[in-house]
Automatic annotation (TrEMBL), chains A, B:
Endpoints of the signal sequence: none
CDD domains linked: AsxRS_core (cd00776), EcAsnRS_like_N (cd04318)
UniProt name for this protein: Asparagine--tRNA ligase
PANTHER family per UniProt: ASPARAGINE--TRNA LIGASE, MITOCHONDRIAL-RELATED, ASPARTYL/LYSYL-TRNA SYNTHETASE
GO MF term (any one): nucleic acid binding
Keywords for this protein: Aminoacyl-tRNA synthetase, ATP-binding, Cytoplasm, Ligase, Nucleotide-binding, Protein biosynthesis
GO cellular component: cytoplasm
Residue ranges occupied by any Aminoacyl-transfer RNA synthetases class-II family profile domain in the UniProt entry: 137-454
PROSITE patterns: AA_TRNA_LIGASE_II (PS50862)
Length: 464, 464
């Protein structure tokens, strides 16, 4: 539908022919002794660039083409031909090259020399023009796309749960407050806050999960999933935490824990297979430059059944492990990153689904098992990243739910609508949450979570 | 992959056979004189219900089945057969019916009698169980799904722009503040706010648009689109405004205004066609109960080319119009809802794309035309809803952009990264924003925007 051709298309033999027009940005220019130049042009549509041969006969060859450098934008029109060079199917013999925008080689930050990822974070507006971040963002797109495709294929409806919420019940300390009160005037007043003057007539926060809302729709539409931003106001300056990140949360009526585990496994495998199929060049790049061997590992994971293990069995393994842990292990403790890494990297050497955690370390909404000690929880752990999915079958029994809420010190009035779901036509149901950025890290091998989201939000960081 | 069958599947003749299991919620029960009952069961997978014939011989017929009412959840197993009744292809002869959850007919809010949409907003957790809201949410899902499919088909990558932003430049008065400062302590202090103690070391807000960020990615990946929540802290208690709503914002390098208009038209037509194809029963319902004639109107819109009109021509039409407007019209004024309605409902009787607005009433980033009086803006207006899309070609010329910023009184330092895009390899580019809820209204005919989003956020309203 465009009058021009994308670089992704132009790199295929099917595009060979005259009068092809491409538009993009120069990566490199190399002048040949024969009086012509090779220009590598990329337009973001794929990892690779198209090689353009610019003959010296072009009217602007001396005045413009020999000044082209990294970052300049051009339109090139010419004959697309099979390329004699290795590693590319086609190249363009240019009849015309028009310069749209210059990039001063003295000041343009993305010169040929490699910059550290830390440095590139300061140029978050330019870093998607680099090989690494272009690849990361295409893979991120592929994972998002597969998410929608997968859940629709499985009969789920996409649901938007609220971002602003007045429920501060679940971990208020880590929530961002949302307000229209004038903080400067408020501070100067010296008087108590009148929350009724705030936009929502009461304190409001940014959501930490859409799950409870999603349950209301699962018990109406059957199967739903959310895919939206979530927030944690945790003051963690680590390579694993973001204040703003994207979560996928499916919730399905009539699912029990084993349906839920099977869903999570099918979902993860679909994401991996689609990335391997669709982002071949990007994945090759990660394999060569970011995490050698990642292609083989992901391919293996996409094919083999996931290992299942109860929390109780995992504790036993960890107690017997020939490893020194900073945090001691015994039944009832919450697993730390070091334990998860041991299980998934040393013991299983692949993904593992841990189930049946002690009720004391899990939230009130997880279904209490018959042993009255564990709940129908599941966490999916993967090598290198740790927990990638957390989920559970939900407590559908009214009496058990309200008892668990009382034990947790929660006020039932705050949850009247959530409790209603158990009062009217309650059904077994289950769901999970997947952190998108964790998955992008897992697939790309990128070490820092700030490098897999376009504009990371962390303590002290809201630039761009 | 489930061991049971969805109602959507079970209503097709292809599912006919023995030992079919369905799981869902009772809509109605009708007892026959012959000593058996008809039970309508819905599971949200589609608009229609499956009729289940429960013979009196079932062991729990008297004790349970004759007590079933709206909202109860059941599992039914039996032979699926062709139905002799009109309007349904199949019905189930039940061998077994298990009750999962009761819904007390005395207290369950969704009894047979119809409730007003206002009343149902108080039961936002239960309203998706009704015909209307089930249909609205399936159509909303269809539009979201088509959005991802359409943009991927057109070579766009999905992009997540930040929700929390420190740029308060564009209309700070209407933005929500995001903070981790303790408001109560702040108010009691009587001292000036120390913003460095806040989470991001400076004031932060909820985004009103991802456009400026999307431009950075369009000039790297070529074509991107966002689809995420956006916020307005406007104190508008109308049927057209939400404080939290979802926006789709494509942004494409090398697109000019006409590429942009063509993209918007293809996109809207795709959304309509997919809804008409995929949500047939839901659309039939809207046509019968919500807005008679909507099916024909949408079908016509999906087929005919959109009308284009410059702002200047539109003003001329309005000036000559045989209609009384509350707000007088002359070249240079911003169009009001009444003017938009006249143009799209009276004059064109269909969608219209208005272009080339006066630069004085449009933001600095829209591309200044050669006449120096207008900008390359476009708004898509549709009958009944008004503006559904707003977009423009962006100003790609460094000198013009900075001049326009100065005129608008904006501080260039706040936009250093946005200006960089014009400094390094600038290219013509364009994009637009589409309000998801407005489209759902347009497609469903629902009058109030609060009824097309699962949990509406409006002044004084953040329940659920």
């Amino acid at each position: 539908m465009s009058t021009w051709t994308s670089v992704a298309e132009a790199r295929k033999e099917s595009a060979i022919g005259p009068d092809v027009e491409i538009r993009g940005w120069v990566r490199t220019r190399r002048d040949s002794k024969g009086g012509f130049s090779f220009i590598e042009v990329n337009d973001g549509s794929c990892f690779g660039s198209l090689q353009i041969v610019a003959p010296g006969e072009l009217s602007n060859y001396e005045s413009e083409i020999k000044r082209l450098g990294a970052g300049c934008s051009i339109v090139a029109i010419g004959r697309l031909a099979a390329s004699p060079a290795k590693g590319q199917a086609t190249e363009m013999q240019a009849d015309e090259i028009r310069v749209l925008g210059w990039a001063d080689g003295e000041t343009y930050p993305l010169q040929k020399k490699r910059h550290s990822f830390e440095k590139l974070r300061e140029w978050a507006h330019l870093r998607p023009r680099t090989n690494t971040f272009g690849a990361v963002m295409r893979v991120r797109d592929s994972i998002s796309r597969s998410t929608h495709d997968f859940f629709h294929d499985e009969g789920f409806f996409y649901l938007n749960t609220p971002i602003i919420t007045a429920s501060d019940c679940e971990g208020a300390g880590e929530m961002f407050r949302v307000t229209t009160l004038d903080l400067d005037r408020l501070a100067a007043s010296g008087k108590p806050v009148n929350h009724e003057l705030d936009f929502f007539d009461r304190p409001a926060y940014l959501t930490v999960s859409g799950q409870l809302n999603a349950e209301t729709y699962a018990t109406a539409l059957g199967r739903v999933y959310t895919f939206g931003p979530t927030f944690r106001a945790e003051n963690s300056n680590t390579s694993r935490h973001l204040a703003e990140f994207w979560m996928v949360e499916p919730e399905a009526a009539f699912f029990d824990l084993s349906d839920n585990m099977a869903l999570a496994e099918r979902y993860l495998k679909r994401l991996l297979r689609d990335c391997l199929d669709r982002c071949d060049e990007d994945m090759q790049f990660f394999n060569q430059r970011i995490q050698p061997g990642i292609l083989d590992r992901l391919t293996a994971v996409a094919e083999a059944p996931f290992r299942h293990m109860t929390y109780t069995d995992a504790i036993e393994v960890l107690e017997k492990a020939d490893a020194k842990f900073e945090y001691p292990v015994s039944w009832g403790v919450d697993l730390q990153a070091e334990h998860e890494r041991y299980l998934t990297e040393q013991y299983v050497d692949g993904p593992v689904i841990l189930t049946d955690y002690p009720s004391t370390i899990k939230p009130f909404y997880m279904r209490l098992s018959d042993d009255e000690k564990t709940v129908a929880a599941m966490d999916v752990l993967v090598p290198g990243v740790g927990e990638i999915i957390g989920g559970s079958q939900r407590e559908e029994r009214l009496d058990v739910l309200t008892r668990r809420m009382d034990q947790a010190g929660l006020n039932q009035d705050d949850y009247w609508w959530y409790i209603d779901l158990r009062r009217y036509g309650t059904v077994p149901h289950a769901g999970f949450g997947l952190g998108l950025e964790r998955v992008v890290q897992y697939v790309s091998g990128m070490a820092n979570i700030r490098d897999v989201i376009p504009f990371p939000r962390t303590p002290g960081n809201a630039e761009f």
